[in-house]
Amino acid sequence: MSLTILLLLALGLGLAGWLAGRARAWSFRRSMGASSLAALPSYHAWYVALWIVVPMIVFIAAWSVIAPQLISQHVLASPAAAGLPEFGFKRESMLAEARAVATGAARAVFNADAAALVEPYREAIGRYQTIGIVVALTLGFIGGVWSFLRIKPDFTARTRVERTVMVILLLASLVAILTTLGIFVSLVFETIRFFGMVNPLDFLFGLHWGPDPMANPDNPDPSRYGAIPLFWGTIFIGAIIAMIVAIPLGLMSAIYLTQYANPRMRAWVKPALEILAGVPTVVYGYFAALTVAPFIRDLAVAAGMSNPSSESALAAGLVMGVMIIPFVSSMADDSIAAVPQAMRDGSLAMGATTSETIRRVLVPAALPGIVAGVMLAISRAIGETMIVVMAASTAANLSANPLEAMTTVTVQIVAMLTGEGSFDHPATLSAFALGFVLFLVTLGLNFIALRVVKRFREAYE
Amino acid sequence: MSERLPTRTEAFEARLKKRYAAERRFRLAGIGAIAFSIIVLAFLLGTMTINGIGGFQRAELTVPIDFTEAGIAGDPAVLSQPGGLQNLETGLPSVVQFFAERELGTEGAAELGNGAWREVGAAIVADPALLDRSVVFDLPASANLAAALNGDGSPEMETLAQQLQAEGQLGTGFDVGFLTRADATDPQQVGIWGALKGSILTMIVTLVLAFPIGVLAALYLEEYAPKNRWTDLIEVSINNLAAVPSIIFGLLGLAVFLWIFPSMRSAPLIGGMTLALMTMPVIVISGRNAIKAVPPSIRDGALAIGASPVQVVFHHVLPLALPGILTGTIIGMARALGETAPLLMIGMRAFVASAPDGFTSPATVLPVQIFLWSDEIDRGFVERTSAAIIVLLLFLLVMNGLAIYLRNKFEKKW
Q1: Could you tell me which residue ranges the ABC transmembrane type-1 domain spans (chain B) (predicted)?
Q2: Residues of B in contact with A356 (CB under 8 A)
């Protein structure tokens, strides 16, 4: 709540500074004539506004991170905190409860011992909130006055504002690098912690997966952390079953839409296929679990299987394949359209039928693009979470039978991080190691695909 | 003059026939592939709609209540206060129970839903004049009776349901509350508003963070960035981020955002920040395409009359590229709206029984709500889940429709 107030305050002050700066610039202009100002009045106004808003926003962002730490330190230093348990879950929950009451998120404490902490919390929150507001206002004020006084008729406000704008633009584009770095660092950091407990070789080449989140975290059983069944399940569902569905259907759809369909049909069918890509994966997952999986089970029973699993790799893979169809078809569409018309015309002029032209000329010529598209589709399929979480099982199984239950890397990430295990347990940390493997594999696939597309595009130019 | 062999030999004809047959088969395969996709799509939407229609309805018992006979006195001034409903808690439930027993019999009245009196109370608060006359209410039935009405309950319950239905006291009605309540444990009591509000709050955070950052980054890369190693690095990381699996962003949110803000588990603020990182690359990529489409002559024209490079971009290029950028943004937001996995990672799967108050209070979002309900074994939840899916799909449809409308309205051929 205080965050919103602070931000509104910053914007309000900025607006005031904007108006004041513009008024001052106009007054120069009126007294000395239009040509005497080095920049338009609005640039002077922006100069003042930036000097108010930027320091305030930077401070608010930093304060919203620092203040909670200061508040809890303050509370822990208060006499009421002396009665808290030394460490562990109970201490955390009591603190959280007292905080919830103090901020008004809860009406009363559940744990009577936590009641004593409410007052210190309330006091600390009030104090640091006041400090935050005062400092933010002071910063804005100082910035505003300083910049306001700097405005002179010969002050080149525009170049200064534009320099700031360029810095902001550069910072915005650095967010992408920071995000990548953040992903990398957080995954690597937790993965190293995990590998401190479980040998990487056991993890990467072990054949049995069955972490026990309740086991003693200090002495994990490395034979329970063999990830090969997960890798196999991921490849089997995402790269084999889903691709058996998606590649022929996607490719044929693309071929029909680019080579045979008349424009009116294309105008209707293409968006319809795109809807298929726009349906949220949780809906596909529900569809797979509710409709497709029981159907496959019934089919298996009818075919004479004695005890088929209700959660099969086939159900998840089939639905995932359908989801990927539009992805494959739009990539194939692009690369077929990139083949020069002369090649098509040449083949037709030789007397080949349309399908012969497509199979012998267009598809081979477009093959690099199609392969790149398939690689992107695979990377998407193996990173897909909700369909497999809902339709595949959590039982790790090293089998080539599509009717058996199987689990994937993403399912296990969800299972490990939404379970009861504590954050220092190897079972929980294994999720980050799995995530790291997934990240590297998808990154590799994407990188290769992008390189292939780039090289292929150059070939015809 | 050499003798010419006939072109159309029998072997040739046979070969030609075969080739034409292959041509037809190939075409059919193409049509078949498209038909398969469309049939699956239609089947998916059809199943959800048929199941979901039931989810918008609930089993209701008809109970006439004669307030003059009940003798409830409610001071309108007291009732209209916040929490005024609580004042009725002592008297009203027994009154409702009494009239239900008179109308439905003991057995039937026992199957009245737990919160039934609240609806009567809410009606009184809304219109105190009701207390002077007799009113017929449609009150929610218990989950067991509702299941029996759908032919899915215990034998005794089904007999009771059939009996009540025959007397016209049990029926299904449109459940307005489904759109205004939050999560609950009983499928008769659940609503979608909590998740919907959570989704809206999360989307606001995502938009406020991802849109400016994405647009500014796109402007920098397309207009100003020098061609060097740094910009290459930025470009590569943006392209890679667009293809990173969404669950990885969830791991990032868990490891970084929840480490910085440990007290904000499952808050829309954290969810929105996580989704913003995911949406930002999409906005950058579509934004760059839109900016690239603005012809250089406009930039040259502005530069020629003395505009600075920043003025060229902010006064001329950006306004012209904005419709294209908006289209890309809406598509990116639609993807974020349907995203589940990263939000599961940061703890948005908690049971939240009331709509979130703000950006920092615990919340859930629509797709996560669907995921949570799909795990419930209670039969009533199947319909509720489908109904929630319909709401989610409608939202996506509106967003995509808006994107297409914008694209068609502002599309320019330079």
Answers
A1: 196-403
A2: 19, 22-23
